[in-house]
Write a structure and sequence with these properties.
Length: about 160
């Protein structure tokens, strides 16, 4: 289910890119933040799962080649990304779409999930997420409203 959600989310983000629409704030209706840049398209999405709410991270690239064609694995592999200088342990997997491929990242530890969530909830400025040596700026404005909209639990 999460893989399908991520794929749909990542397919939607390329509609934004194709229309040259970029947003530097969270989209309340879609519960996500999209940062289009020449380094790829970063998507952070807030989702509700059977085990609770979580933040998903994905980075998409326009390409006519599939993950397989490029030699990427369709299996989850150990990985790490950096949030405001803190290394976050994750698993990543390549996901194909029509005209793009994307990396989906799943934070492995509860401490990593809590760190990312805390940064998004409490930082008054944008935070920096580094993946594969590329930096993406993510504003925190609007995040709390989206997070709270998934349940009646207020922060």
């Amino acid at each position: 289910m999460l893989r399908n959600f991520a794929l749909v989310t990542l397919m939607c983000l390329f509609v934004f890119k194709a229309n040259a629409e970029t947003s530097l704030s969270w989209n309340f209706q879609n519960r996500n933040f999209v940062n289009n840049s020449d380094q790829g398209t970063l998507v952070l999405s807030v989702v509700a799962t059977d085990s609770g709410k979580q933040v998903n991270l994905g980075i998409g690239y326009q390409s006519d080649k599939s993950c397989y064609d490029q030699g990427f694995s369709y299996n989850f592999v150990d990985y790490a990304y950096v949030v405001d200088g803190q290394i976050i342990s994750a698993k990543r997997v390549c996901v194909d779409g029509e005209g793009f491929y994307a990396w989906e990242y799943r934070t492995r530890t509860e401490a990593g999930k809590a760190f990312l969530l805390k940064k998004l909830m409490t930082k008054d400025k944008a935070l920096v997420i580094e993946v594969d040596g590329k930096e993406f700026w993510v504003p925190t404005k609007g995040f709390n409203a989206i997070w709270n909209s998934l349940s009646e639990e207020a922060l």
